[in-house]
Amino acid sequence: MTGDPRAAAPRKPAPDGLQPERTELAWRRTALSMAAFSLVGARLLPALFGDARWLLPGAAGAVLAGWLWLASRGRHLRYPRTSGPSPAPAPPGSPPFGPASTGAGLLALAGGMVVALGLGGLAVVVHLLR
Amino acid sequence: MTAPERRFPRSVFGVGAEPDARFTLANERTFLAWIRTALALVAGGVALETLGLDLQPGLRLAASLVLIVAGTVVPVIAWSGWMRVERALRRGAPLPSTIVGVCLAVVVGVVGVLVLLGVLLR
């Protein structure tokens, strides 16, 4: 009767189906695009400005993109699920599950990164004019 | 009973009740789709100038600048759209309308015309 304790553990059904996974995949696509764009920047900027220090913005962008993906993945893995690895138990009194419950800082960061990339691109084009 | 609202941004999470997670996740994916669109706009604009394509230089520069500026503005509009939709979801209110799609269509159309003229007038 009381065999495997894991079998007895209550499994919360996930009414959200594959939505968390879809969202994590959307984050993955976005982070991948940002990393690719950043690496192109790392390749382009030092040659353009003739200074190895211009490697830094592209490298920083790639690292940030990787971090964005890991952070969104962590959020996804904390979601209740019916199969696969069990999520870490939430501490009592914690806010309800759901990406929105962790706040939208990641979204703001992603938006800010693209604005920064756009301004960087503008700087490159203006530099080419001279 | 409830903990003070600490989630960012408080102007969103301070109103209404917790929405259906599916809808808030869909809102998040819509924001991410706009982010990728913006990234593509910036990439296209930068590529247009740095690849040194054989187009009329003035028109090529104009197209490039339109693309990059649009790509820089879209994330800002997308963020404001995410906040408005999330607030509406939390309040159970009708979803707000947005004109960003029309604006983007105009931008892409303008860039297409500029590139076409750039090819014809080179």
Task: Summarize this structure briefly.
Chain B: Pfam families: DUF202. With 130 residues, chain A is mainly alpha-helical. Chain A has four helices and no strands.
Relevant terms:
heterodimer; A: mainly alpha; 4 helices; about 65% helix; about 0% strand; B: about 120 residues; mainly alpha; elongated
Percentage beta strand of chain A? under 5%
Number of strands of chain B: 0
Topology pattern of chain B, helix = H, strand = E: HHHH
Q: What does the main sheet of chain A amount to?
A: none
Which structural class fits the helix and strand makeup of chain A?
A: mainly alpha
C-alpha geometry of chain A: elongated
Protein chain pair with the most extensive contact, residues per chain: A-B, 44 and 44 residues
DSSP strand count of chain A: 0
Number of domains of chain A: 1
Task: Give the number of domains of chain B.
Answer: 1
Structural class of chain B: mainly alpha
Instruction: Please tally the helical runs of chain B, counting DSSP H or I stretches of 4 or more residues.
Output: 4
Can you give the helix content of chain A as a percent range?
55-70%
Rg measurement of chain A, Å: 21 Å
Q: Topology as H/E string of chain A?
A: HHHH
Descriptive report:
Chain B: This is Membrane protein. Chain B: Its main location: membrane. Chain B: The chain crosses the membrane at residues 31-51, 58-79, 99-121. The complex is a heterodimer of chains A (130) and B (122). Chain A is mainly alpha-helical and 130 residues long. Chain A has one domain. Chain A has helices at 5-8, 19-49, 55-77, 105-129. Residues 82-87 and 94-101 of chain A have low confidence and may be disordered. By secondary structure, chain B is an all-alpha fold. Chain B has one domain (20-120). The longest helix of chain B has 35 residues, at 57-91. The radius of gyration of chain B is 19 Å and the shape is elongated. Classes of the chains: A mainly alpha (130), B mainly alpha (122). Chains A and B meet through helix 2 and helix 4 of A and helix 2 and helix 3 of B.
